[in-house]
Structure formats: structure tokens, C-alpha cells
UniProtKB/TrEMBL annotation:
Residues 320-544 form the ABC transporter domain. Its main location: membrane. The gene is cydC_2. PANTHER family: ATP-BINDING CASSETTE SUB-FAMILY B (PTHR24221), ATP-BINDING CASSETTE SUB-FAMILY B MEMBER 6 (PTHR24221:SF654). It comes from Amycolatopsis minnesotensis. NCBIfam families: CydC. The lineage of its organism: Bacteria, Bacillati, Actinomycetota, Actinomycetes, Pseudonocardiales. Residues 15-272 form the ABC transmembrane type-1 domain. The keyword ATP-binding applies. It is a multi-pass membrane protein. Keywords: ATP-binding, Membrane, Nucleotide-binding, Transmembrane, Transmembrane helix. It is found in: Cell membrane. This is Thiol reductant ABC exporter subunit CydC. It holds the Pfam family ABC_tran. The chain crosses the membrane at residues 14-40, 46-64, 122-145, 151-169.
């Protein structure tokens, strides 16, 4: 199977759709030619028997054309919808199989998924019309050749101009227009998002009028360019080629009788109806090339080699050895040479200033990002040796998602068999009073920040995973409440390995080990008492004191 996953059945369906569409077009072409011949031949008042076949042919072709058009639509959509269903499935599978954060941006995800629609246009509006035009064009030239070789030659010249040269020019001008418009379109999209999401702030700071005016300037620049392009001679050129070719065919077939010339002329007009849309197809092709390139890139990247090692359900021993990580495009590494030993049940805290690498370290332990140096192992084997979706790790990480379903359904994700009592117990342990039937909105938008955090904490606690990774789980709560929630969570998580990134100093004395990170490196490590005795960064910033409960 190719990157695009085209099967033999897809090719067969496409061939059927092409044949049906070409037959429908040819029926229309023959109908025009026969009708023209019939009219002019009838004007010569021959015996009616001489016209009978043509009369029957006109009736039959009219009926046939309608039926073929219907069948062609069915076949065309069948090929596209079946193929797109399979392609969309492959895109989703590829995206979900990626551990790296490269494809995880929400915008990028939705763009990639909507890019599949470009594949629909590539088949339905570009490939199919091109194949049909090729078949119809060849049939028309063969038909013309039966009447007159010079007329067929004139037809070939016209078809090449309209079916090859014009589409190439159209695609080139569409590409140039897209390149020229791209910065303005991106700026307009950014302005639209800023105007919609930041309307309140823009109004509050009296900047709304300026922002609207700036967006309007960009939009009117785009419209002006579009108006200028509307004056392009390319669309009119197709019609001109059609008329000139028809005239040339009629003139070169001059030796034939009038009915035959009329049939050739109207047949030529009809074949151009199939060929002229190729210019529009070429413009569309120029537009869909970029989405198709993105899809190709996604589908052709080798999938991460997830191993099939049986995942341990208990006695999990995670370990980082010299772990380093550099995000693509970033000059400095987010982690450098981190060693961390996590036998089952160990409590480790990660502290340090904002941007020091705490979330990145948790993401590496969760297998969400791949380290670019050193190793992450689980019971002695590389994390990649285990199936990514079954790692024995649960948590409330920075990008944890709240689904647009009830609180109950969000919680049941972690433990589908849990009873309401278990769900409520987990909520209580996480300090949450969430009602199970409440709808939290898109990604928890209908909850307060603190409520959302506690829902994520309750979900993490519910899972049976022996390792809990918590990324500032009580951020957004008042310090006293945050302290109580953290203690309750740690009690509920007794026996599990917990790695907690926090700015909250209160629970730290109870941890087995505390790592102080700075610019991705571990600059201090030890127990609370050891770090206090060292009187370094930790002692300066994380000593719980009555007046300083919440830290940097
Ligand atoms: N997806 C990403 N792409 C590129 N750089 C990133 C990405 N995520 C984090 N970084 C960078 O990596 C560094 C470490 O970030 P990280 O989020 O791990 O810090 P942190 O200690 O958790 O910060 P905070 O306390 O503010 O949550 C920062 O310089 C950050 O800008």
C-alpha cells in the first residue's frame, strides 16, 4: 500500500466513475451533433425513412445522458467517500500514534484533519474531470477523424490549448495569487482571532476601533487584489479558443455537406464543455497541493516503533539516566543530563523557577515527549519498548484535557468500572465538590480554574496506575486550601510513585527527594532537611514560613 493508501478497489471504482462520466459527456456530445445534423438534414426534406435512425438516436441519447449523469454522480461520490473514510481513519491513527508533541498543537491537528477534505477535491474536482476530459477529447478527435482529418487536426490544436496550456497558466496564476495573499490571509486570520477572543480587553483599553480598522485595511487590500485578478484575460480565453476551434473545424471540413459540418461544429462546442472546466480544476489543484503535501508528510513519517513488552501493573521502577531534551527550533535544551531514580512508592518533588523544565521532565516520564539524549527506562527497558497507550502512568499534566461530557464521564475515563461512590471518594480526596452530572464545557471552560484542576486530580487518582505525575495540581487554589488538597491527594496516593512539580512549599518536607531545576539542569537535590542545610536556592525560596506560603 502507498503512503496514500490507495487500494485496487479504489482504482477500480475510479475507473468505473470515469467511464460513466465520460459516457455521459459523450452522450451529450452525440446528442448535440445528431440533433444539429437532424435539423439541417430535415431542412433538405428527404424521405422520412432517411431520418428515422437519427430521430430515435436523439431520443435515446437524451434519455441515456440523464441516466448516465445520475450513475456518474453515484459512482464519483462512492469512490471519494469510501476513500476519504479510510484516509481520515489513517490520519487519526497516525496522529494518535505519535508520541512527540510535534503534531499536538490544536490548530495543527484540526488543520491536518480538515486537510483530508482537500483530498476529496483533488479526486472529485481535479483528477476525475481530467480523466473524463482525456477520454472525451480522444473519442471526439477519433470521431472527427472519421469525417475529416484536417478538422480533427484543428480540434486537437484547440483541445491542447484549452485542456493543457490554459490549465497550466491558470494553476501558475493561482499559485502566484496564493503566495501573494498568504501573508495577508494569515494576518487577517490572526486579527479575526484577536478581535473575537480579545474583544473585552480591546474595548476596555479603547483599542477596539484601531484593531477593527487594521483588520479592515488588510481585508480591503485582499479584495482589491481579487478585483484586479477578476480582470484577468484567462477565463475569457477559454471561450475564445472554443469559438475559434469550432470555426476552424467547420472551415476545414468545408468539403462535407452542411448537416455534417453542423454536426462537427456543435460536437466541437460540446467537447469544449468538458475540457474548459480543466482551468478551474487546475486552479483548485494549485490550492490543494499544500494541504496534500502536509498530509503526505504526516502519513509518510515512520510511526514510532512502539514495543509490545508486557506492561507491569505493580512494582514499577522508572529511571532517567542523563536525560536531555531539546524542543525543535529551540536554541537551548529544555533538559540536560537529568538522573532520577523512581522505585515504586517514591515521592519526588520538582521545584524551580518558571521555565526550568519541570513540565518537560514530567512529560518525558509520561512518554509524551521523547528525550533527545540519555535514557528513560521502565523496569530496566527503554520506555519505547512498551505500548505507548498502556504505560502504567497516570497524572494531571499541564496539557491534560477535560472532555465535553459530564464530570462522571470524564472521571470514568480513568476507571470505567468505578461506581458513583468511588467517583465521589476520588473527588473528595482531590478536594472537589463537583456534581457528577455537571457539564464542564469545552476543556473545562464552564468551571473555574481551581475546579478544573481538582477534576483532573480526581481523575488521576481514580486510575489504578502505580505512577502519578502531577504538574502544579493545586495552582489556582488559595494557599491554605492548596496545601490541604495536596496533603489529601498524597494520602490517597499512598504506595504509588508520585512525581510532583510544584511551587507550593508546604508538603515538601514529607518528600523522599526534591530536585531543584534551573534552565533544564538539576542544580540541587536531596531531602528537605539536606537542602535547607545547604542554604542554597531551595532554602531561599521554598522554606515554608507563615507569611510566605506560595512560592515563585
Ligand atoms: N512544546 C514546546 N516547544 C518548545 N519549547 C518548549 C515547549 N514546551 C516548553 N518549552 C520550553 O522548554 C523550557 C522548559 O519549559 P517547561 O514548561 O518544562 O518549564 P516549567 O518549569 O514547567 O515552567 P512553569 O513552572 O512555568 O510551568 C522553557 O524554556 C519552555 O519555553
Amino acid at each position: 500500500m502507498t503512503v496514500w493508501g490507495v487500494t485496487r478497489a479504489d482504482v477500480r471504482r475510479l475507473a468505473v466513475a470515469t467511464v460513466l462520466a465520460a459516457c455521459a459527456e459523450l452522450a451529450g456530445l452525440l446528442l448535440m451533433a445528431t440533433a444539429a445534423w437532424l435539423l439541417l438534414r430535415a431542412a433538405e426534406q428527404p424521405p422520412i425513412a432517411a431520418l428515422t435512425v437519427a430521430i430515435i438516436a436523439v431520443r435515446a441519447l437524451a434519455l441515456l445522458r440523464g441516466g448516465l449523469r445520475y450513475a456518474e454522480r453515484l459512482a464519483g461520490h462512492e469512490v471519494v467517500l469510501r476513500y476519504l473514510g479510510a484516509l481520515r481513519g489513517r490520519v487519526y491513527e497516525t496522529l494518535t500514534a505519535r508520541r512527540s508533541s510535534r503534531f499536538s498543537g490544536g490548530d495543527l491537528l484540526s488543520r491536518l484533519v480538515s486537510d483530508v477534505d482537500a483530498a476529496q477535491d483533488a479526486v472529485l474536482r481535479c483528477l476525475l474531470p481530467a480523466l473524463v476530459a482525456l477520454v472525451v477529447g480522444m473519442a471526439a478527435v477519433t470521431g472527427a477523424l472519421l469525417f475529416s482529418a484536417p478538422a480533427a487536426l484543428a480540434l486537437v490544436a484547440g483541445l491542447v490549448l484549452a485542456g493543457v496550456l490554459l490549465p497550466v497558466l491558470s494553476a501558475r496564476s493561482a499559485r502566484r495569487a496564493a503566495d501573494a495573499d498568504a501573508p495577508a490571509l494569515a494576518a487577517l486570520a490572526d486579527s479575526a482571532i484577536d478581535l473575537a477572543r480579545g474583544a473585552v480587553e480591546l474595548r476596555a483599553f479603547g483599542a477596539a476601533d484601531r484593531a477593527v480598522a487594521a483588520a479592515r485595511t488588510v481585508a480591503s487590500g485582499l479584495s482589491a487584489r481579487e478585483r484586479r485578478r477578476a480582470g484577468s484575460p484567462l477565463p475569457g480565453a477559454g471561450a475564445a479558443i472554443q469559438v475559434l476551434t469550432t470555426l476552424a473545424v467547420c472551415v476545414t471540413a468545408g468539403g462535407l455537406g452542411l448537416p455534417a459540418i453542423a454536426a462537427l461544429g456543435l460536437g466541437t462546442m460540446a467537447v469544449f464543455e468538458t475540457v474548459l472546466p480543466l482551468a478551474t480544476a487546475a486552479r483548485r489543484w494549485a490550492e490543494v497541493r499544500e494541504p496534500l503535501r502536509r498530509l503526505h508528510q504526516l502519513l509518510s513519517e515512520p510511526a514510532p516503533r512502539d514495543g509490545s513488552c508486557p506492561v507491569p501493573a505493580a512494582n514499577v521502577h522508572l529511571r532517567l539516566r542523563g536525560a536531555g531534551l531539546r524542543y525543535p527550533g529551540r536554541p537551548a535544551p529544555a533538559l540536560t543530563g537529568v538522573d532520577l531514580d523512581l522505585p515504586q512508592g517514591r515521592l519526588v518533588a520538582l521545584v524551580g523557577p518558571s521555565g526550568s523544565g519541570k513540565s518537560t521532565l514530567l512529560a518525558a516520564l509520561a512518554g509524551q515527549v521523547e528525550t533527545t539524549a540519555g535514557a528513560v527506562t521502565l523496569n530496566g527497558r527503554a520506555l519505547g519498548a512498551y505500548p505507548a497507550e498502556r504505560l502504567p502512568v497516570s497524572g494531571a499534566l499541564a496539557d491534560a484535557h477535560v472532555f465535553r461530557a459530564t464530570v462522571r464521564e470524564n472521571l470514568l475515563l480513568a476507571k470505567p468500572s468505578a461506581s458513583d461512590d468511588e467517583l465521589l471518594a476520588a473527588c473528595r480526596a482531590a478536594g472537589s465538590e463537583a456534581e457528577l452530572d455537571r457539564l464542564p464545557g469545552t476543556d473545562g471552560a464552564a468551571m473555574s480554574g481551581g475546579q478544573r484542576q481538582r477534576l483532573l486530580l480526581a481523575r488521576a487518582l481514580l486510575s489504578d496506575a502505580p505512577v502519578l505525575l502531577l504538574d502544579e495540581p493545586v495552582e489556582g487554589l488559595d494557599p491554605a486550601h492548596a496545601d490541604a488538597v495536596l496533603r489529601s491527594v498524597l494520602t490517597a496516593a499512598a504506595g504509588r510513585t508520585v512525581v510532583l512539580a510544584t511551587h507550593q512549599p508546604a508538603p515538601l518536607p514529607g518528600f523522599d527527594e526534591i530536585l531543584v531545576l534551573d534552565e533544564g539542569e538539576v542544580v540541587e537535590r536531596g531531602t528537605h532537611a539536606e537542602l535547607v542545610a545547604r542554604a542554597g536556592y531551595y532554602a531561599e525560596h521554598y522554606l515554608p514560613s507563615p507569611g510566605r506560603a506560595h512560592m515563585p
